[in-house]
Amino acid sequence: MRATARHGARGGGPDAAAVLADVTALLRSGMDPSRAWAAAGVEVDAEGLPRVDRLGGDAVAARCALAGSRLAREVGAPLARVLMAVDEALARVAVARDAAEAALAGPRMSAQILRRLPLVGVGLAALVDPRAVRTLVMSPAGWVLAAAAAGLTWGGARWMARMVRAAGGPGMADARAEIPVAVTCALVDAALGTGMPVSDACRRVAGVVDEHGGRALVELADALDRAAGDGPATPGPWGGGTARGARRRGTSRPAARFARRERRGSDSAPHTVLGALRRPLTLAVETGAPARPGIAAATARLDRDERRRAQRAAGELGVRLTLPLALCLLPAFALAGVVPMVYAVVAGAGLGDLGGVLDLDLDVPAPAP
Length: 369
Prior knowledge:
Elements: H1 2-10, H2 16-28, H3 33-39, H4 59-75, H5 79-114, H6 117-128, H7 131-138, H8 140-168, H9 181-192, H10 198-206, H11 211-228, H12 243-249, H13 253-264, H14 273-287, H15 292-320, H16 322-348
Helix pairs in contact: 2-3, 2-5, 4-5, 4-9, 5-8, 5-9, 5-15, 6-16, 7-8, 7-16, 8-15, 8-16, 9-10, 9-15, 10-11, 11-13, 11-14, 14-15
């Protein structure tokens, strides 16, 4: 392990995901956390937590490892089990992201090629008649054509870039969060594995994740407490509520109001913490059922939704790219290549200078007497 860590450092720093897998394997073999981190080449602070700046260039994996370590220490969960859950969640996020990148690779390459269409027009015009380039660079009207073509090209490129970014989407991670939603779900599941109530598990995880995810979990915990209604409930197995309290309460009005508000808001999207955890945790509190199977189903649904979203976005992107192509890039192609080429051909054939629009001497030879 030391050799692996040193080799990674020589190559530009150890990979955080690989270090996390190594530490998990060492912990499962019975090694204590401090020795496991040291064997993987990661320094720890006075509290025994890994230093994020020593976990390599993958900042997301480093933050997830630190959050898992802090949660394991605070709730008394085995560190190996928590880090293994984090590692598996990061692997699912990476697989889903790779699938999305593969689906969008074709449309993205098409966008890159189409952005250069006006330059292709200039090159074709120069091949057909080199005087077309002189028309662009040596006449006032040519300057206008070149400026208009450049403006249309810039606008079309920006338009395509926005389309490509929108097609990429947040995926399995909320764009405002520093820790992927799948990892946050894994941390909540690990906290529930210690037997604590659902709302307490949400608050514990809220203290170790990023600010955006923490606010969402605290809000969810408050709503779950309101849904619990008449006082604290004895937690069921794996963090579920009591069946007796659920039967007496029926469907809670605060939970229903919370659900309606979240459906109206942007945080109800499946790639957000609230969108992923609200339903399974609310059902667990209201019915007394275990919450962990619902979290597992929500995480699997995140994966399926990301793959389906990527395929749909790739198909839609291929069609939407025709808009900037037709409205910006093809006109720029015509202004930068076709119009100067047509004028050069007309002038070269001795048909005049198009009414003096382009005041440029192209050295056309006079016809023989």
